[in-house]
């Protein structure tokens, strides 16, 4: 069978990120995840078993690894979790190749690592139509329970993964501990941040806030100001076709530290722009050229399809969303926390110009889309039954970051005369919520009007570490100190920060000082480091620890604790903590 046009790689126009700051495929939504989640094997056609026997003999002769891309779990519920792997049925059936036979994969979930107490088992048949990926929504599990899982195919057994279900909705938790990462660029270095997460035993889950992979070709957006590749992307051009996206996902999942982190903890993920292409919006992207790369809905559908195939995530199709897939969703962890994951690319309006104050404040422009906005506001309530901490997985920063430093009445007076200065002041990055101030005001007004407490936005994208309070009026915050929540931003895994892009580390203190001076609600800012965060929630407070890595170009670069910030329950404030969380490995303290 030949591959379709969507399976072909296409030539791509060279591009790189220049600032620091379609319908989804059918049969790949959450309804198609489930494949025999019972305790017995699924029914398979006789011809499939005959083919399986022949494939097994061929695989043994070839001596290739069937489970090259590891295992993963995600989106834990009290009674269910998504399991993932990918099989390579023949040596030639690599990701995106569009070749290889249908293969039946066995799976097991056990209460112990030795698999003496198997609680669920089944079979899943995969093939080239889903790039030989396997995704199973395993149900019938017990809440707040650690499980072990593995896959078998062609006479080989995958590595063993460990996962954990969420607690029951009415469970009163003493704590919840979450790892946070974003922005992992293969070409810019090794994924030491994932090693740091994989080495920990104290995490309930890992939260990935977007830019899990990057679209660029070799020599575009690598290590340092000259974009040197520490290791080069495959395919060796910008990903545009379905085969390109599949190959790139496959390449990233060969990383040793990423495989270990996936196998160690369940993940909850969302995308930002680079899973498709830079600065994406509802009907286009900065790094998409229709004349050479085809129409935007088709390209986005390819990217979303590959993401659905390759990530341990539930993506539900709904008729009233334009691309037929839905990534924004809620996950609950007892009475302590509700995690609300946003999709801030699929439904947003095109980014405005940096000095286009009228567009920045235009209420007809949106970053969330109307349906997601209504859903988000519904999530952010203090209604009976709503968990204490309302946590938002937020791909781009919501805290205002401007260089105006003026009271709001002065800013608006200037805008009345010039029409250039946005209400919240001159932003430095309009790709985040600063470019969509009407949506931000709607969210903040909702929090203020409804008296919502304990709101945490957990954010990626900006390749730097931040701890911020969320001011109702940014220009008046220095006087009023009025805040409706807290935002905590993790640094990138490898993607270039200000120091990397300029090659001038001596310049970053001045930039940090200018931002802090103009934005008193920003309490912590680190433009120099890469790494990850660990967040702990308790009924009394939330604490976030930032961990930083050494040189991204070194596989075994050291990991050290940098700083911690905490917010007391109902305070809407952040204060610096003296030490990392209890249980932090001694070697990084």
From TrEMBL:
Extent of Polar residues compositional bias: 1-12
Domain Phospholipase D N-terminal: from-to ranges: 69-165
Boundaries of every PhoD-like phosphatase metallophosphatase domain copy: 180-546
Top-level lineage group: Bacteria
Biased composition (Low complexity): 34-48
Stretches the record annotates as Disordered: 1-21, 34-62
Protein known as: Alkaline phosphatase D family protein
Organism of origin: Nocardioides bruguierae
């Amino acid at each position: 069978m030949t591959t379709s046009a969507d399976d072909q790689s296409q030539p791509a126009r060279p591009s790189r990120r220049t600032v620091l700051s379609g319908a989804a495929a059918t049969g790949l939504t959450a309804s198609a995840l489930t494949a025999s989640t019972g305790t017995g094997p699924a029914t398979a056609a006789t011809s499939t078993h005959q083919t399986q026997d022949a494939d097994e003999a061929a695989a043994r002769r070839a001596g290739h690894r069937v489970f090259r891309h590891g295992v993963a779990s995600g989106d834990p519920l009290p009674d269910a979790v998504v399991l993932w792997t990918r099989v390579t049925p023949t040596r030639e059936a690599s990701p995106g190749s569009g070749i290889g036979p249908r293969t039946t994969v066995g799976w097991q979930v056990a209460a112990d690592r030795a698999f003496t107490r198997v609680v669920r088992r089944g079979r899943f048949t995969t093939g080239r139509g889903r790039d030989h990926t396997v995704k199973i929504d395993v149900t019938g599990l017990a809440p707040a329970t650690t499980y072990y899982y593995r896959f078998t195919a062609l006479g080989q057994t995958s590595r063993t993964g460990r996962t954990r279900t969420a607690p029951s909705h009415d469970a009163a938790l003493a704590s919840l501990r979450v790892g946070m990462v974003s922005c992992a660029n293969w070409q810019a270095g090794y994924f030491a941040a994932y090693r740091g997460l994989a080495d920990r035993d104290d995490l309930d889950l890992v939260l990935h806030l977007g830019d899990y992979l990057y679209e660029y070709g070799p020599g575009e957006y690598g290590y340092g100001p000259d974009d040197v590749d520490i290791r080069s992307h495959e395919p060796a051009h910008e990903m545009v076709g379905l085969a390109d996206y599949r190959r790139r996902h496959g390449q990233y999942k060969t990383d040793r530290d990423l495989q270990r982190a996936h196998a160690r903890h369940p993940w909850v993920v969302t995308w930002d722009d680079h899973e498709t292409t830079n600065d994406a919006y509802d009907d286009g992207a900065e790094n998409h050229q229709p004349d050479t790369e085809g129409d935007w809905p088709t390209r986005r559908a390819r990217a979303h399809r590959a993401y659905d195939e390759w990530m341990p995530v539930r993506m539900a199709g709904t008729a009233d969303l334009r691309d037929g897939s839905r990534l924004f969703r809620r996950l609950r962890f007892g009475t302590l926390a509700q995690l609300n994951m946003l999709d801030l690319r699929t439904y947003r309006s095109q980014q405005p110009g940096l000095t286009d104050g009228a567009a920045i404040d235009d209420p007809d422009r949106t970053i969330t889309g109307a349906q997601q906005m209504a859903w988000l506001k519904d999530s952010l309530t203090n209604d009976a039954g709503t968990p204490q901490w309302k946590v938002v997985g937020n791909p781009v920063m919501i805290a205002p970051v401007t260089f105006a430093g003026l009271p709001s009445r002065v800013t608006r007076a200037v805008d009345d005369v010039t029409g250039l200065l946005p209400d919240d002041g001159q932003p430095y990055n309009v790709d985040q919520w600063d470019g969509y101030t009407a949506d931000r005001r709607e969210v903040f007004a909702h929090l203020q009007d409804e008296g919502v407490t304990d709101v945490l936005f957990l954010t990626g994208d900006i390749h730097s570490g931040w701890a911020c309070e969320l001011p109702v009026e940014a220009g008046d915050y220095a006087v009023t100190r009025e805040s409706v929540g807290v935002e905590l931003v993790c640094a990138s895994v490898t993607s270039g920060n200000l120091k990397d892009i300029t090659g001038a580390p001596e310049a970053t203190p001045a930039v940090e000082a200018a931002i802090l001076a103009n934005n008193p609600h920003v309490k912590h800012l680190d433009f120099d480091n890469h790494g990850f965060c660990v967040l702990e929630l308790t009924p009394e407070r939330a604490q976030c620890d930032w961990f930083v890595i050494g040189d991204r170009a070194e596989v075994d670069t050291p990991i050290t604790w940098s700083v911690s910030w905490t917010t007391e329950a109902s305070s809407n404030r952040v204060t610096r903590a003296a030490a990392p969380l209890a249980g932090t490995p001694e070697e990084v303290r």
